[in-house]
Amino acid sequence: MTLQFPALPNFTGYNAPMRTDCEILDLEVTGEIPAEIEGTWYRCGPDPRFAPKLGDDIYVNGDGVVSLFRFHRGRVEFRMRHVRTERFLAEREAGRALFGAYRNPFTDDPLVATVSGSSANTTAFFHAGRLFALKEDGLPYELDPDTLETRGTWDFKGRLTSKTVTAHPKIDPATGEWLLFGYEAGGLGSRDMVFGVVDKHGNLIREDWFEAPYTAMQHDFAVTQDYVIFMVFPTTADVERMREGGDHWVWERDKESWIGILPRHGSVDQLRWFKRPAAYSFHVGNAYNEGSMVHIDLCLSQRNAFPGIPDADGAPYNPEEAAPFLTRWSFDAQDPEQSFSSRQLSPIPGELPRVDGRVVAAKHRVIYYGGINPELPLNISGPIGPGSNLLVRVDVESGAVSALHLRDADSFQEPQLVPAADHEGYLLVVVDHHDRMLASVAILEAAHPEKGPVATIKLPIRLRDAFHGCWVASGASNGA
């Protein structure tokens, strides 16, 4: 039967599936690539191999694709390859989609009853010389850092017992440790959570289990030098709802948010929870502590930003409630209920915040993210509707905000900082050219992105929106 994707927003226009593995050895460059940019930029995102089993699907349910841009002496090569997950291989063998609604195994084909549905489509991550593709509903997949060929799932040589690993790992630049967590760690719908630590050599040295107040989508977490913070927002899972064919995730605005504070070098017996009103955050920019005072900079909205996640009470999706703003949470870890404060850091809504990897878990000054100016044309692109028509830099100390807008037909994907020894460094960002159906990479001065590109790398193809990536400097054994 001829393959046909539905004529729906997540499968047409710039979002049309590419279904492509490719290699382009020498990309055209306009301008001059700064000499400091020597290394590899890895990225990961979704791209469905087959038309959806149920006729439609959300963007985030596509098969994982990892790509790389390798920079060497002013030249750039590009590779892109699907991750050969259990899911990908089973569907390729069958010649059709076998997995149904997002993370609802009760809607899958019986052929894949014992096959992992994780698509490894969220984050490309490098640690201790190994490259991984991560998605929060399963184990990491290890890839060859040069060819991007899939080596298989990674459970730290059998030491990891959790069924899930977050797609938002943290590397402490001071120790080289990989800090991770997993939710639904014991299986579908479970309240089980795990906190883990991997040493700089790649060995799992800690895996502690505990329970969340309720089962919730916990996409990211926060880490400081002395604390780990887990954020349980009311996007909830219910196995019986899934069994009846319903959504894995539903927004329950009547539930409270719960914030868990764990002393980083303590035991889970010391984990304490405190309550906040219902809200949602997908992504944390960074966090740090000054004694017992904890500061977390995160993109915060009034409800889950995904329009595909319905309200439990049937309320229609409200994009104003879903707009995330860069916000600082501050509280005393010894008395969080009484000391909690919240302060908006930027007037521009947006997502995908990034900081210099050298200051993760320590005090930072600058955050970069993709912003949206609703008064400018909004190009539909990606998982939650409008693509970012601004690239934003925020100085959280001075409060200064600057932003770059290119053309009305352009949108930005997640930025990546390439740090420099004697200045702020450079930003790499994929630009989607919606009118041309092509992509490019803009190289910007990190301190002044509003000045526009110092160089542009042209691609002869478009790049479906990816989610997250990492920069690995030449000769480095770790990513940032």
Q: What percent of the residues sit in helical stretches (DSSP H or I)?
A: under 10%
Overall SS class: mainly beta
Oligomer: single chain
Give the termini separation: 45 Å
Shape: globular
Q: Please work out how many helical segments DSSP would assign.
A: 4
In the predicted model, the low-confidence regions spanning at least 5 consecutive residues are none
Strand content: 35-45%
Radius of gyration from CA coordinates: 21 Å
Task: Write down the overall mean pLDDT.
Answer: 96
**Biggest sheet descriptor:** 6 strands, antiparallel
Would you give an account of this structure?
With 480 residues, this protein is mainly β. It has helices spanning 86-94, 239-243, 319-322, 336-339; strands spanning 22-24, 28-31, 39-46, 64-72, 75-82, 123-127, 130-134, 141-143, 150-153, 170-171, 178-183, 192-198, 204-211, 222-223, 227-232, 235-236, 250-251, 257-263, 272-276, 280-290, 293-301, 325-332, 341-344, 350-354, 366-371, 390-395, 401-404, 410-412, 416-418, 426-433, 438-445, 455-458, 468-473. It has a domain at 155-355. The strands form eight sheets. Strands 2, 28, 29, 30, 31 and 32 form a six-stranded antiparallel beta sheet that branches. Strands 1-5-4-3-33 form a five-stranded antiparallel beta sheet, with no helix packed on it. A four-stranded antiparallel beta sheet has the order 6-7-8-9, with no helix packed on it. Strand 10 and strand 11 (178-183) form a beta hairpin. The longest helix has 9 residues, at 86-94.
